[in-house]
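Subject: mismatched residue count in predicted assembly?

I count 271 residues in my input, but I want to confirm that the predicted structure covers every chain. Input:
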Amino acid sequence: MLELRLVQGSLLKKVLESIKDLVNDANFDFSSSGFSLQSMDSSHVALVALLLKSEGFEHYRCDRNTSMGMNLGNMSKMLKCAGNDDIITIKGDDGSDTVTFMFESPTQDKIADFEMKLMDIDSEHLGIPEAEYHAIVKMPSAEFARICKDLASIGDTVVISVTKEGVKFSTRGDIGTANIVLRQNTTVDKPEDATVIEMNEPVSMTFALRYMNSFTKATPLSNTVTISMSPDLPVVVEYKIAEMGYVRFYLAPKMEE
Amino acid sequence: VSKQSTITKFFNKV
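Triage response: the counts match. Full output below for your records.
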């Protein structure tokens, strides 16, 4: 028996919108502490890790650990049928080959249930090691999205360099080059507008902008984004989901031959 | 020339 009631149903809608274009289908792993998902894109260049903790749900019941394979495109189609103010409940029964999404309007005058077929997914689970990163940049998520979009109109890859001067995003393409430098800025009215650069050692890495732009679909989930880099590891682009968990995107770097 | 690496180069299966 599985029953999860999320009053802020729009969060789940936003989560799906942020990952459905990167990953076609994935296993959702439910346990008593919450649910998680880990999946690579089809080319194994990027990995998404999602965590939603049980504390964030108004009601959370998961009698035994269970894994449900879902097509994210189909799940997104169903969740799009929920209103932004709707309460969403996820229900499942042991051994069933379907999952039910129930949508309740805030005034309880409209109740809908959508039953979705589950699928068997043979996915490999990767161990993500704890790491000390050379540099961690926390910045407004809208600013990061703007930079990735702007640079993608010039080039295909971005070089992200962190020095004590700041963080530099650079690209080059047929029409020319672009460099955007952000300096640490903590003298802002609202903490979410700050750019905070923690640097243990300078780092410079190259990434495909196509993936970075895909990650920025998570922008509605959080006002801030955290970018963690070490030369020998995939970059981590993390959007925290208030008091519930996170969506983390890992992107393998482009490396010199 | 830089080449796109993959996640599995860095993270192992568990």
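Chain A has a mean pLDDT of 96. Marking this ticket as 'not a bug'.
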